[in-house]
Known about the structure:
With 245 residues, this protein is an alpha/beta fold.
Amino acid sequence: MSIISVKGISVSFDxxxxxxxxxxxxxxxxxxxxxxxxxxxxxTLFKAILGLVEIDNGHISVEGxxxxxxxxxVVYVPQKNDVDWQFPATVYDxxxxxxxxxxxxxxxxxKEDEAITINALKEVDMLAFRERxxxxxxxxxxxxxxxxxxxxxxxxxxxxxxxxxxxxxxxEEKIIQILKKLADEGKTLLVVHHDxxxxxxxxxxxxxxxxxxxxxxxxxxxxxEENIARxxxxxxxxxxxxxxx
Length: 245
């Protein structure tokens, strides 16, 4: 059974079609790479599934229910450019925000929540920075903080929009290690990604997108030169050099 079902959705902004007639069935326990050129609608697909943008038509369900009824089960890590890094909050403040979906509006965080927060910071090697203001961190450290917040939420489905952009090699390796561990635990992960050279190594399955669905399925089957060329429509001049796809 699919954990996320997307049936024929389309999305438009200012009468311009951004996504057209997308059908997807997302399985649990897999890491999906969402691949395509700039403007392909990758972030819009995430926001449509999460109910953050209005769809023109079609239907989306998470474990057979509307996403509005499944908020605790999904977590979203946005692009770095969508975050106000000057917001006056410490690393610890940001990470423990992941516990709020588990609380009613009048409930305070308790010792269990604090322990989960500390464990999430340890998982991403950021405990030593817990009192640091988020704007004072490096790009890689900032990405680790938002991943820790996602871990703190203890969700089943993770949406990560370009988590490897602007991070160092060590952080990228740490993030993919954590994502693979989550998948082994049965979590579902969808990741917008741009570095085509690491797709085969990082993802179990691939969604190739360019406003319409080009192809999706097992990485070893779907991620080939023909489908990549169709997705990028000539925007990838180094495609012929990628001999190990």
